[in-house]
Design a protein that fits this description.
Blueprint (H helix, E strand, L loop, with lengths): L1 E2 L8 E2 L16 E8 L4 H4 L4 E6 L12 H4 L5 E2 L2 H13 L5 E4 L5 H10 L6 E5 L5 H5 L7 E4 L6 H8 L4 H16 L3 E2 L5 E5 L1 E4 L5 H15 L4 E5 L20 H13 L3 E4 L19
The chain binds iron/sulfur cluster.
Length: 291
Amino acid sequence: MNCKLCPHKCGAFRTKDTAGGKCGLSLTPKVARIAPHFWEEPPISGVKGSGTVFFSGCTLNCVYCQNYKISAQNLGTPITAEKLADEYKKLEEQGVHNINLVSATQVLPEIIRSFEIYKPKIPVVYNCGGFERVETLKALESIVDIYLPDFKYADNALGFEYSGAENYREVALSAISEMFRQKGELSLDDEGIAQKGVLVRHLVLPNHTKNSIEVLNILKENFGDLLTLSLMGQYTPAGKACEYSKLSRKITKREYQKVLNHLLDLEIRGYSQELSAAAEEYIPDWDYKAE
Ligand code: SF4
């Protein structure tokens, strides 16, 4: 195919054996980890964990990515749609609350095929950077139950400098609008576990509280009371972050509190995070091996 899966719309020729385009991957998915994961938001991880599948590659190229080895360096093991379907079953048998697909867009055709082979009985979460095409999201409507997108930047210059994304703000807003059109606001079961809807994430970056405050304004203006937001404070310099002077430290309590206060002023419902979560031990081992 001439790939236009993500907003980069490279048009690169890609097959299961031929890699190409900005993401540099073939259409055969590679995974770095498949396991219950306990560090997502409470309605996603619950007590039994989120059945997380970390795919290699990404539609974004964030210089500070905590998962840099898999997102930018494409570390991972190739996997077939059949094997993926088996892995969903295994996770389900372990009792996880959901199947959580992390950064899957660049290999979407095989992922869609994996759900044609086996559709789990638990919710399917689509965990992404928000830089998605509406046309591509439409193909997920009957598969995904919960969208977990980031909305990273109100300032497009930052989106380009730090993530290599053009028009991030407009592209992500259109994508999140489509997610809300499909799934509506976040709905939880009696035990507080997410069953359907959209949970938007925003990671506060050091020296960029202005961007974060504008992000909250834009989200509130566009999605009003539908919005549930997770405000993340666990930024820690990773990947190439230390090459960027403004990104080379953790965020301060003051920075986080300033953004949190604005979220409270806007009466946005959601989740906040202890800054003590800013530690590298939360980066899992990329240890998936196909049996
Ligand atoms: S998925 Fe990869 S090849 Fe396809 S448009 Fe996006 S970056 Fe380009």
